[in-house]
Amino acid sequence: MKRTVAMLLCLLLTASLLLLTACGDQTELQDGYYTAQAAEFSHGWKEYITILVKGGDIISVEYNAENASGFIKSWDNAYMQTMLHAQGTYPNEYTRGYANQLLERQGEGGIDAITGATSSHTSFQILAQAVLEQARKGDPSIAIVSTAH
User: Fold this and answer.
1) From the centroid of its chain, how far is CA 32?
2) pTM attached to this predicted model
3) Of 109, 110, 112, 116, nearest to 92 (Cα)?
4) What is the β-pairing status of strands 46-54 and 32-38?
5) For the chain, does the N or the C end have fewer beta carbons within 10 angstroms?
């Protein structure tokens, strides 16, 4: 009888430790706004991602870049025309494409590159990992990340 009680207590203790360990795992996204921003400017622009998490799910993603004066890249019509003719895409198109992939996949799986925006694809992936880590930790501070490649 004593042996059975001891085994039962041992099993309960083990189960409790496993449960506590599982509860401490912060793989779930915490509710809030999170931002990751490039540490440096690239070609005059500094990229960033901001996500909104609610109920553990990403419900909004903004991916863009700004210049030193704070002007948003996807609003730059001259840049859009130049890039469209040279690359076949432009910031307002590929930023939404990458953001939509992150939203649809909820941070799971890879992000497919968009032809003509492969440099931004690399930066996006680095920033996405950083912003998701902020959301897992529940850390609302802006993550500053090197995206140099």
Assistant:
1) 13
2) 0.79
3) 116
4) antiparallel
5) N
At 46 the three-state DSSP class reads strand
Buried b / exposed e along 83-107 (16+ C-beta atoms within 10 A): beeeeebbbbbbbbbbbebbeeeeb
Kindly state the DSSP code that residue 30 receives in the 8-state scheme. P
Q: At what angle do helices 77-87 and 91-105 cross, to 10 degrees?
A: 80
**Dihedral sign for Cα atoms in the order 117, 119, 121, 127:** negative
Round to the nearest angstrom and report the end-to-end CA distance of the chain: 66
- Write the pLDDT tens digit of every residue in 68-92: 999 999 999 998 999 999 999 999 9
* Residue 138: Cβ within 10 Å count: 14
Alpha carbon separation from 123 to 17, 29, 36, 148 (Å, rounded): 40, 21, 11, 8
List pLDDT tens digits, range 5-45: 444 434 444 444 444 434 444 579 999 999 999 999 999 99
